[in-house]
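Issue 218. Parser rejects a valid record. Input:
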Amino acid sequence: MEDSLPLHVCHVQTLSKFINRSHVLLHSIALAFLIYYRISFLFQDQDPNAKATHLFLPWLLVFASELLLSFIWLLDQAFRWRPVTRTVFHERLPEDDKLPAIDVFICTTDPDKEPTVEVMNTVLSAMALDYPPEKLHVYLSDDGGSPITLYGMKEAYSFATWWLPFCRKHRIKTRSPETYFSGSKDDDEGSESSEFMFERRKIQERYEIFKESIANVRGRVDGNRITARDHPSLIEVIQDNSNDKVQVDQVKIPLLVYVAREKRPSHSHHFKAGALNVLQRVSCMLSNSPYILVLDCDMYCNDPTSARRAMCFHLDSKISPLLAFVQFPQRFRNISKSDIYDSQLRMIFSVQWQGIDGLKGPILSGTGFYIKRVSICGRSIQDIDLEELKQSFGSSNELIKSLLGNYKSNALNVQHRLLEETQLLASCTYEKDTKWGKEVGFLYDSVVEDYLTGFTLHCKGWTSVYCDPSRPQFLGNGTTNLNDCLIQGMRWSSGLAEVGFSKFCPLIYGPPRMSIFVSMCYGYYAFSALLYFLPLWCFATIPQLCLLNDIPLYPKVSNSYFVIFLFIFLSSISKNLQEVLSTGGSFQTWRNEQRIWMMKSITSHLYGSLDAIMKRIGMREASFLPTNKVEDAEQVKLYKMGKFDFQTSNMFLVPMVSLIILNLVSFIGGLVRVIFVGNWDQMLVQVFISFYILVMNFPIIEAMIIRKDKGRVRPSVTVLSAMFSTIFLLLGCIIFCC
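Output the parser choked on:
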């Protein structure tokens, strides 16, 4: 009877669907009227002087910007067409001996930016998942080839012999020891008993020794570190190096493997995608599990049941044959109440992914997903001859055997010849003349390998599902300073734009292979950087210059079309606010998201799009800067206080400050014009645009004028920005007054 019960249930959000579709209808009608108004003005008979540059050009630029924003808005609506939520019943899964095996892939690069203790906490939390330990295998890819990381792995294994039994015995939910011992509120069984408290203190003492040993060894090896871009491959199955063999023999511990692939300056290493593909090959030789969990090095398992929750979908015979991956949301443990940098990515994981889950499933999101191994093999390998398999997967006969065979764990008795084979598979020349990164594994055509790989999987007919339980399954570190936020945004913008400019352009490559709605969702992210930075730069400059030069761009207040513009503005704002409030946010959340969207659009999206174009035409090589995971106490303090930290590059600061100065001059000049000239009904919209930009970005003004702490805008930046604004104003006067 229990076998007939469903493992999961999908719920369509009927009310949200009705609200979303009604909004799309009304907003689309308003946009149609706006387009008609603009076109009718451009083609109506006017005084030849009126259609000169000083009037026609700004109207054309503003109209083009409105069309671009309308187009990206239309793409965005595909996410809202059919939102769904899902409920799983992992207690209905079969017995442990019938569950499939899982390999866990964790990637790290630089122990200076990704602290070793934090990475080991992720490793320990993955080893402690509520899953049969003999069917769980954890692999850590260390692209830096750091001896500190290898030492940390050995120490983590030793500590795991104590940590895992403690978690299992007392059913600990928070299985990252750092989080648990720092005061995590957990529903631990027996938490009031003296026995539990004694064991807890004992484990905590061992954890402090574990941290201290890593800190001590760091000082000894820092000066003798292997060059991160030039080192041989090293694969090591971690064994216990402590003297307490009795404890080890009594505890079932998952296989733990350290992987440092070979890296040479003369060979491209393809960043995270290359690391994941090496892990895929190495794991084929040692465990060959049918499912893979991918985690960022700072994204620890916050709930031990995620593997069982994912299996509720992968083991469902109705959807399993075409199901490629189960995506969990990225949640973050260090988010402040105000979240001024929108580090929680609320719109993505609380709105858009639920919407696309009702179509074909969410976009692959870099971390926190359980993917079926065969789905990233390119195509079915059972019908391919041996020579063609070698052309696709490389020359390793052992790898081919592993790919063709059924799962047989080599975890307990890893043969020496298999370890030798993994050295070949992790070499920097193995992928030469193969299809790795092109058709097999995670794809190399973009630094956002997750987005591109997920897109091609959906194009091939695979599906995905989004699982968002009330308790976050994974928790990581969000960005807590403006510099990291903008650099991360630039990297994502560049990678996504790369896909948009490539043969995999979602709006061209997608429609013949998937529904138009799913293509629109992928197209939104491929072109959002380009289609946001162009209009926002226009709306932050053109109306302001025209205001100062007495050039109206919008209908008078008394004109009936003024209502159309007002409706479009209020419709956009109110819909976005409704989504923020319905997902647990506040008015302050909405304001902060709007502000950081503006900041990213005029900086990260601009530079990211230019970077993608330069890479496309061969003027620049692909690069990847890992997000800094080391927390600065002063930056964190400012973040918790809700104050921006403007200690960032001039390439980010100067555009923002220049536009603020321009809008400040425009607002004051426009206000004077409205008061003394009296054409308020003609210029009201343009005055309001400057006012809205200033109000939304008041923290920049505050940092320029009021603040005296280290996070303020430097006076030199203000002076430089004022010079740029003055030049821009003079050029505007020359262009629009001639």
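Fixed in the parser; the record now loads. The chain has 26 helices and 13 strands.
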